[in-house]
Design brief:
single chain; alpha/beta; Elongation Factor Tu (Ef-tu), domain 3; Rossmann fold; six-stranded antiparallel β-sheet; six-stranded parallel β-sheet; about 30% strand; globular
Length: about 270
């Protein structure tokens, strides 16, 4: 049996199922990981089959635990043109899958459903409209996917940015802003894109110079700066249900309709 980084066995018996429905599941090898905080990590997996997806979709991973397969969906952060699937995952201490999944080392395998699903971002980008992407922590993943895709397409002349794109990401501390460096670089290099991170516990980081407060606290300010207005805007919300409810209420009071506001809620594992 393999051991975790503390020399302990995994929190539940871990094996990739020996008797699996190979028409339903593929095997995916963990090829790299980047740990951001105790319970947050970015992992890249390589399925043993073609696994097409579009930005905004999710892949369902699974492990065999106590004789049955436990599955959870995870939004994909990679561009569909990349050869691997990248995920930004939060470990829930008592999570049925996220806790044992956190202990799967590089080189080991998980199960992955052979079909990626999800309609979030299906119609993005909406031509001729400013976009606001609003996320909490791991909710940034589908936005990273589409932003990587848009940058690639713009460089190839396949997409011409005609309106600004703004990404707002909220977290308790800056270490939870998993793609901050990449998004700041994109902000610096692409005139059409702006990235605004905010932290809700600035007293823990006296050197923080960015926005403070929850992401919905700064939403209206920065959304208005894009020039969007009711009938001229596309708003996408991804993350915890409280943020989504608050942000939707803010934008509804601003005059935007439900059709202009799309959402993807993340629930604890």
């Amino acid at each position: 049996m393999w051991l975790d980084r503390n020399g302990l066995p995994p929190p539940a018996p871990y094996t990739v199922a020996r008797m699996i429905d190979t028409e339903k599941y593929a095997t995916a090898t963990v090829v790299s990981r980047r740990d951001l905080a105790t319970d947050l990590w970015v992992v890249r997996i390589k399925p043993d089959c073609e696994l097409p997806f579009r930005p905004g979709q999710y892949v369902t991973l699974g492990l065999e635990i106590d004789g049955h397969i436990v599955e959870r969906p995870y939004s994909i952060a990679s561009d569909p043109a990349e050869g691997e699937i990248e995920l930004f995952i939060e470990r829930v201490p008592e999570g049925e899958l996220s806790a044992p999944l956190h202990e799967v080392p590089i080189g080991e395998t998980t199960l992955a459903r052979r079909r990626c699903k999800g309609l979030f971002l299906k119609d993005a980008p909406v031509e001729g409209r400013p976009h606001v992407f609003v996320a909490t922590v791991t909710g940034i993943a589908p936005f990273v996917s589409i932003l990587r895709s848009l940058r690639r397409r713009a460089a190839a002349g396949e997409w011409v940015p005609d309106q600004p794109v703004l990404a707002l990401q909220g977290a308790s501390r800056s270490e939870e802003l998993g793609y901050a460096d990449e998004l700041r670089k994109l902000d610096a290099e692409c005139p059409w894109f702006t990235y605004i991170p905010t932290i809700s516990r600035p007293w823990d980081e006296p050197g923080w110079e960015g926005e403070t407060g929850r992401v919905e606290d700064v939403l209206r300010k920065h959304a208005d700066a894009t020039g969007m207005s009711p009938g001229l805007g596309a708003i996408y919300l991804c993350g915890n249900p409280e943020m989504i409810a608050n942000s939707r209420g803010i934008m509804r009071r601003r005059g935007f309709t439900d059709k202009e506001i799309r959402e993807e809620q993340y629930w604890p594992d």
